[in-house]
């Protein structure tokens, strides 16, 4: 007996002229208590299908379906062109199903909560919509729900507005709302995509626990195979609105049948591989530095309060010619400010940035939609740096533009088009071409692949690698994704709250993280592969999850202490000293760590620099 | 240039509101330009023997109490309305765009100062200023435009400032700066073309407001001075004979309403176009 | 919040000062003396000007005027012997205020309802006709509407009285012709605000948690969509005051608007100045109150003031 059974679901969107089929002949079932994964890239129709099941799509979407049953009850939407009465009947029926028997969580926790309604009311109104109870009883139940999703001081939180909560907390509130009606099925639509890595791990932990404890079934929708693999035993793969493959996670990873699944798995696996560096390029010799950043700081005043927040504090690093430095950190850790300091868009409050190359530092941005002027043709956008900085003739310029387009895998005739005509990946290629056309020596890549689909990500990374080989340029590569950084970088730095807390070669840092934050970050990172029971491999989907709980940190980097180590409030190893003073960078061999735990080691063994292989393991970190 | 015209034409025809508005407006514009030039009478020519006449072939809308041809006077008045509307649009458009882009782009204290000035100007109903100006200066179209422009630009300045503030944070702007573009180029090539939609919407709604203000002032008696005729003056003049000869009042009312409606249609159409593009992106 | 209030208050006072100064000097710039004309001789005109203090240096007149203004004294009418501007305002204000208030209430009520209906109706005909209505309402000037209504309902059909406010039915036409434009604007504002809200994720979320549509609209969407409508009340007050000029003289209502128009015709400069200043105060006051209300309704602002 299946809990949810969907047969032949079609969804079609009516936009002025074109008709577009978003979902085609989708059939699947969910068994009671099962966690089903749905994976697909953006535009694959996965969210649309989920919303169609609940009847949440707007008018212009035409939903037709042979049958949808929930627990034996029929919840098939009326066919397109049905009269108003049957629509109203359906709507009335669904009001009893939504939130009560099927709960749903959306991607963006900030926009899915009403900004001008208190958190408490958003929960209690859900409770009262499905169960007759007094306001007081609803409040008690809401506080209980908040406790269940891991929010402390529920009473106080209920009196707050969504903007007063952090991103992870908001998503927990959304989960509490979804669970308020004690549904049999929870649909989680990209529940962790907008969150930081460490918070994502917390939410996934919670989802897993709740599914195990309550026996509630769950559909987990994500573009990230790793998220799906962490929680689901069975999964569906969607592409262009069509179900291309269905099976257990093991089958998918070990023996993918469909070409598209194979591609997904392969690209994901490649991100996990250690990088292959070309031997003939001389990497980062001392004295040959291209960029030297020395103890730069930058603060911003926030709001009208006049309080200044240090976005970057005393950060130092060097980048040699042809070298890539990877910077990893969660949102708000100051990596974008650092990028602006390096490119000269911002001037530092203290410290120096020295760039020894000719020309300007160029940049590739995160959002390929915002980084191209929609009113300028691609050719004009690419030629702009040449026009402003060189005295090339118009013909020479367009010749260079054509060359760059070819090099980045586009066609020369694309120069006459406007950016709207291109997909996200193609736009990112244009941005790379624009960054390279003035022949810079250093390019700052600020989350260049974050907003792209997995398969496109791999192509863009390949392009960046190839360009570096051919032109021997240097990258400052900024990302929140450990795997992406590892693939490209010769050295990595881990940033937390404006400072680099650990840096070194990726192989050693990833294998033996010394700073507690690095450990937490690595513990939270998902690995590529199906879940394996009972085997502790340092990733979250194992029974080791709770034993590794030491590395699972609480909370978010929201409120920083005024003194001492910024990580101390979240750190499991925090000592009294950590609250008093800020640890400085301790250098041990090729690695640098800003933590007192390492300092003790360094102090007791002054020659530690020579024996870098000995990690401070004996201190229990 | 030809390409732009063709593009603009296609843009207008794509939306029924915009198409009908443009058609009506073009009609009004044509008549307002041609009628006073081609007609056998001038707008001030009196004909004592032909007072309060009804419609006929020689006087399409009849004549008023001084025997002046109403058809010519109405279209002459429409011409003044259009002049006022376009004049204030032009001046307010330039002032508002400059003011808003400087405030939005520079930010900081200058932005504070500029926007506070706009707030102060905005706080009082502009009609009060305009009436005083009309009384203090000569009562002609220039004074009306001056009065309207004293406060008419503030709304546009606010819109432009908001757009510039939003756009300058976008990454393509940073990219242009990295490419070596200076402030002038960033404003002209990158920011303002992207802010064009809201600017046009604002201006298309400014024109009917200006025309309304002029008609209202003339109606109240502080607008265009005689013998020049404006639609407001014509309506006021005919009011005394409203019961005997209602058509003398209805013709200018009809033309005024058609003019204002055509501009509102254009405004709504442009607004939908701009909003629609933003939504689909 | 306190900071914002002070800032807003300062802006309002500054605006008032600028208005008073501009109005004072503009009226002094107006051509001709108010006492010229008729068969008054030069000597008599000069004597009267002397008596009214018009021979003093301009800056001293300005100082005196500001001083009197602070005491609430707006001077005396030049054309109506022995009548102070304050008396004129005292006589005209109740009628104008009542008609304006009724118009604001009507506009807010109908505008909001029509806006909600237009945004949420599933029928194309409903949406289209309301849209057409707002187009006409915003396009037809209020004085034209007042004239047409007076001609149609008052003169031809003889259904409603068109002169004075002696009976309750006398309010209908003036209030209607004043309220049409703000109604159209409020309808449009409300409709746009709701359409924006409809796109938001939280509406989908509210439906996904099983809330009834009516509750979603009332408890969630209107809470955010109200703000732009409330914001418009300030400009609406300005519109109604100036709109009363034409409507009051068409329907012969003894209000401030008619006084203003008459004083323009008479070139009664102190009265023009006094009425301008008074109306400025009213509009700036209404703007101030609605702005503060809007700020207070925003939870982020309210929280920041604690």
From TrEMBL, chain A:
<keyword id="KW-0067">ATP-binding</keyword>
<dbReference type="Pfam" id="PF08352">
    <property type="entry name" value="oligo_HPY"/>
</dbReference>
<feature type="domain" description="ABC transporter">
    <location>
        <begin position="291"/>
        <end position="522"/>
    </location>
</feature>
<keyword id="KW-0472">Membrane</keyword>
<dbReference type="InterPro" id="IPR050388">
    <property type="entry name" value="ABC_Ni/Peptide_Import"/>
</dbReference>
<protein>
    <submittedName>
        <fullName>ABC transporter ATP-binding protein</fullName>
    </submittedName>
</protein>
<dbReference type="InterPro" id="IPR003439">
    <property type="entry name" value="ABC_transporter-like_ATP-bd"/>
</dbReference>
<dbReference type="InterPro" id="IPR003593">
    <property type="entry name" value="AAA+_ATPase"/>
</dbReference>
<dbReference type="InterPro" id="IPR017871">
    <property type="entry name" value="ABC_transporter-like_CS"/>
</dbReference>
<dbReference type="GO" id="GO:0005524">
    <property type="term" value="F:ATP binding"/>
</dbReference>
<keyword id="KW-0547">Nucleotide-binding</keyword>
<comment type="similarity">
    <text>Belongs to the ABC transporter superfamily.</text>
</comment>
<keyword id="KW-0813">Transport</keyword>
<dbReference type="InterPro" id="IPR013563">
    <property type="entry name" value="Oligopep_ABC_C"/>
</dbReference>
<dbReference type="Pfam" id="PF00005">
    <property type="entry name" value="ABC_tran"/>
</dbReference>
From TrEMBL, chain B:
<comment type="similarity">
    <text>Belongs to the binding-protein-dependent transport system permease family. OppBC subfamily.</text>
</comment>
<keyword id="KW-0571">Peptide transport</keyword>
<keyword id="KW-1133">Transmembrane helix</keyword>
<feature type="transmembrane region" description="Helical">
    <location>
        <begin position="249"/>
        <end position="270"/>
    </location>
</feature>
<keyword id="KW-0813">Transport</keyword>
<dbReference type="Pfam" id="PF00528">
    <property type="entry name" value="BPD_transp_1"/>
</dbReference>
<keyword id="KW-0653">Protein transport</keyword>
<keyword id="KW-0472">Membrane</keyword>
<dbReference type="InterPro" id="IPR050366">
    <property type="entry name" value="BP-dependent_transpt_permease"/>
</dbReference>
<protein>
    <submittedName>
        <fullName>ABC transporter permease</fullName>
    </submittedName>
</protein>
<feature type="transmembrane region" description="Helical">
    <location>
        <begin position="74"/>
        <end position="101"/>
    </location>
</feature>
<keyword id="KW-1003">Cell membrane</keyword>
<feature type="transmembrane region" description="Helical">
    <location>
        <begin position="210"/>
        <end position="229"/>
    </location>
</feature>
<keyword id="KW-0812">Transmembrane</keyword>
<feature type="transmembrane region" description="Helical">
    <location>
        <begin position="113"/>
        <end position="135"/>
    </location>
</feature>
Automatic annotation (TrEMBL), chain C:
<keyword id="KW-1003">Cell membrane</keyword>
<dbReference type="Pfam" id="PF00528">
    <property type="entry name" value="BPD_transp_1"/>
</dbReference>
<keyword id="KW-0812">Transmembrane</keyword>
<feature type="transmembrane region" description="Helical">
    <location>
        <begin position="95"/>
        <end position="117"/>
    </location>
</feature>
<feature type="transmembrane region" description="Helical">
    <location>
        <begin position="12"/>
        <end position="30"/>
    </location>
</feature>
<dbReference type="InterPro" id="IPR000515">
    <property type="entry name" value="MetI-like"/>
</dbReference>
<feature type="transmembrane region" description="Helical">
    <location>
        <begin position="129"/>
        <end position="151"/>
    </location>
</feature>
<comment type="similarity">
    <text>Belongs to the binding-protein-dependent transport system permease family.</text>
</comment>
<dbReference type="InterPro" id="IPR035906">
    <property type="entry name" value="MetI-like_sf"/>
</dbReference>
<keyword id="KW-0472">Membrane</keyword>
<feature type="domain" description="ABC transmembrane type-1">
    <location>
        <begin position="93"/>
        <end position="290"/>
    </location>
</feature>
<feature type="transmembrane region" description="Helical">
    <location>
        <begin position="271"/>
        <end position="297"/>
    </location>
</feature>
<protein>
    <submittedName>
        <fullName>ABC transporter permease</fullName>
    </submittedName>
</protein>
<keyword id="KW-1133">Transmembrane helix</keyword>
<feature type="transmembrane region" description="Helical">
    <location>
        <begin position="229"/>
        <end position="251"/>
    </location>
</feature>
């Amino acid at each position: 007996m299946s809990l949810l059974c969907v047969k032949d679901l079609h969804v079609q969107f009516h936009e002025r002229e074109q008709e577009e089929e978003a979902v085609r002949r989708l059939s699947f079932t969910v068994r009671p208590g099962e966690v089903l994964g749905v994976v697909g890239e953006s535009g694959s129709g996965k969210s649309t299908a989920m919303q169609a099941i609940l009847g949440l799509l707007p008018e212009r979407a035409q939903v037709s379906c042979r049958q949808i049953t929930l627990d034996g009850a029929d919840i098939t939407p009326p066919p397109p062109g049905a009269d108003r009465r049957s629509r109203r009947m359906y709507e009335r029926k669904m009001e009893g199903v939504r939130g009560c028997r099927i709960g749903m969580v959306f991607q963006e926790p900030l926009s899915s909560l009403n900004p001008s309604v208190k958190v408490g009311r958003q929960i209690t109104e859900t409770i009262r919509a499905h169960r007759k109870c007094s306001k007081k009883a609803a409040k008690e139940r809401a506080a209980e729900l908040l406790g269940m999703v891991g929010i402390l001081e529920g009473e106080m939180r209920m009196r707050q507005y969504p903007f007063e909560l952090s991103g992870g907390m908001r998503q927990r509130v959304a989960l509490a709302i979804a669970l308020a009606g004690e549904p049999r099925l929870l649909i989680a639509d990209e529940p962790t995509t907008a969150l930081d890595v460490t918070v994502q791990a917390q939410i996934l932990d919670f989802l897993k626990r709740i599914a195990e404890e309550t026996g509630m079934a769950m559909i987990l929708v994500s573009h990230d195979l790793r998220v799906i693999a962490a929680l689901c035993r069975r999964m569906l793969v969607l592409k262009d609105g069509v179900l291309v493959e269905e099976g257990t996670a093991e089958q998918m990873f070990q023996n993918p049948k469909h070409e598209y699944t194979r591609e997904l798995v392969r690209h994901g696996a490649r991100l996990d591989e250690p990088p292959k560096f070309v031997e003939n390029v001389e990497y980062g010799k001392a004295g040959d530095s291209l960029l030297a950043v020395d103890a730069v700081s930058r603060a911003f005043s926030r709001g009208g309060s006049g309080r200044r927040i240090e976005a970057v504090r005393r950060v130092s690093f060097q980048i040699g010619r042809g070298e890539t430095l990877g910077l990893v950190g969660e949102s708000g850790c100051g990596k974008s400010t650092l990028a602006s300091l390096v490119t000269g868009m911002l001037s530092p409050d203290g410290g120096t940035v020295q760039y020894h190359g000719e020309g300007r530092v160029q940049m590739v941005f995160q959002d390929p939609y915002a980084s191209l002027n929609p009113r300028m043709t691609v050719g004009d956008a690419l030629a702009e740096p040449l026009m402003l900085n060189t005295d090339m003739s118009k013909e020479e310029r367009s010749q260079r533009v054509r060359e760059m387009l070819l090099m980045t895998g586009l066609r020369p005739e694309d120069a006459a088009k406007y950016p709207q005509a291109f997909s996200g990946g193609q736009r990112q290629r244009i941005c790379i071409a624009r960054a390279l056309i003035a022949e810079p020596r250093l390019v700052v890549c600020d989350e260049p692949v974050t907003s792209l689909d997995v398969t496109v990500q791999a192509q863009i990374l390949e392009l960046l690698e190839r360009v570096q080989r051919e032109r021997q340029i240097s990258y400052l590569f900024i990302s929140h994704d450990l795997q992406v950084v590892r693939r490209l970088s010769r050295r990595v730095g881990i940033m937390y709250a404006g400072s680099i807390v650990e840096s070194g070669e990726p192989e050693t840092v990833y294998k033996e993280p010394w700073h507690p934050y690095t450990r937490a970050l690595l513990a939270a990172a998902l690995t590529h592969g199906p879940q394996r029971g009972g085997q502790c491999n340092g990733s979250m989907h194992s029974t080791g999850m709770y034993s590794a709980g030491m590395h699972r940190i609480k909370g978010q980097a929201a409120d920083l202490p005024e003194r001492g180590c910024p990580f101390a409030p979240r750190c499991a190893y925090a000592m009294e000293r950590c609250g008093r003073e800020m640890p400085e960078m301790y250098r041990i061999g090729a690695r640098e760590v800003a933590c007192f735990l390492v300092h003790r080691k360094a102090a007791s063994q002054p020659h530690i620099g020579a024996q870098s292989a000995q990690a401070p393991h004996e201190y229990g970190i | 240039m030809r390409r732009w015209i063709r593009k603009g034409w296609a843009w207008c025809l794509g939306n029924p509101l915009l198409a009908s508005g443009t058609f009506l407006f073009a009609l009004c514009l044509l008549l307002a330009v041609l009628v006073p030039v081609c007609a056998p009478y001038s707008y001030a020519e009196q004909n004592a023997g032909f007072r309060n006449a009804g419609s006929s072939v020689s006087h399409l809308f009849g004549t008023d109490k001084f025997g002046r041809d109403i058809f010519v006077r109405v279209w002459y008045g429409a011409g003044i309305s259009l002049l006022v509307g376009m004049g204030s649009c032009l001046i307010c458009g330039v002032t508002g765009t400059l003011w808003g882009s400087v405030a939005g782009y520079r930010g900081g204290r200058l932005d504070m100062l500029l926007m506070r000035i706009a707030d102060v100007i905005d706080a009082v109903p502009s009609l009060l200023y305009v009436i005083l100006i009309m009384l203090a200066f000569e009562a002609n179209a220039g004074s009306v435009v001056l009065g309207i422009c004293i406060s008419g630009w503030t709304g546009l300045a606010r819109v432009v400032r908001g757009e510039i503030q939003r756009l300058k944070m976008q990454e393509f702007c940073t990219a242009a700066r990295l490419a070596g573009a200076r402030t002038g180029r960033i404003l002209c090539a990158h920011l303002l073309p992207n802010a064009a939609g809201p600017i046009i919407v604002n201006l298309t709604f400014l024109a009917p407001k200006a025309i309304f203000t002029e008609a209202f002032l003339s109606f109240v008696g502080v607008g265009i001075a005689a013998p020049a005729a404006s639609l407001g003056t014509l309506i006021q003049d005919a009011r005394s004979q409203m019961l005997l000869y209602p058509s003398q009042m209805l013709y200018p009312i009809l033309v005024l309403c058609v003019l204002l409606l055509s501009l509102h249609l254009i405004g709504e159409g442009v607004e939908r176009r701009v909003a629609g593009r933003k939504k689909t992106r | 919040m306190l900071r914002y209030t002070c800032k807003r208050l300062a802006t309002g006072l500054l605006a008032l000062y600028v208005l008073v100064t501009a109005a004072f000097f503009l009226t002094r710039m107006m051509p001709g003396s108010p006492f010229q004309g008729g068969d008054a001789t030069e000597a008599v005109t000069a004597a009267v000007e002397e008596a009214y203090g018009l021979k003093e240096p301009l800056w001293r007149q300005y100082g005196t005027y500001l001083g009197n203004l602070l005491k609430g004294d707006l001077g005396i009418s030049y054309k109506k012997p022995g009548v102070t501007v304050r008396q004129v305002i005292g006589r005209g204000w109740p009628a104008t205020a009542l008609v304006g208030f009724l118009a604001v209430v009507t506009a807010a009520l109908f505008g909001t309802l029509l806006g909600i209906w237009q945004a949420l109706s599933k029928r194309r005909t409903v949406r289209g006709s309301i849209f057409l209505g707002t187009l006409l309402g915003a396009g037809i000037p209020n004085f034209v509407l007042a004239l047409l209504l007076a001609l149609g309902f008052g003169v031809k059909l003889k259904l409603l009285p068109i002169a004075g406010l002696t009976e309750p039915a006398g309010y209908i036409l003036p209030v209607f012709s004043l309220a049409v434009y703000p109604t159209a604007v409020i309808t449009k504002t409300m409709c746009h605000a709701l359409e924006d809200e409809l796109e938001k994720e939280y509406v989908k979320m509210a439906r996904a948690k099983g809330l009834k549509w009516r509750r979603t609209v009332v408890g969630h969407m209107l809470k955010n969509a109200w703000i732009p409508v409330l914001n418009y009340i300030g400009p609406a007050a300005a519109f109604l005051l100036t709109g009363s000029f034409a409507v009051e003289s068409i329907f012969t209502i003894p209000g401030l608007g008619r006084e203003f128009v008459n004083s323009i015709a008479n070139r009664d400069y102190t009265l023009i100045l006094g009425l301008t200043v008074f109306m400025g105060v009213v509009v700036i006051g209404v703007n101030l109150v609605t702005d503060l209300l809007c700020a207070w309704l925003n939870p982020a602002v309210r929280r920041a003031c604690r």
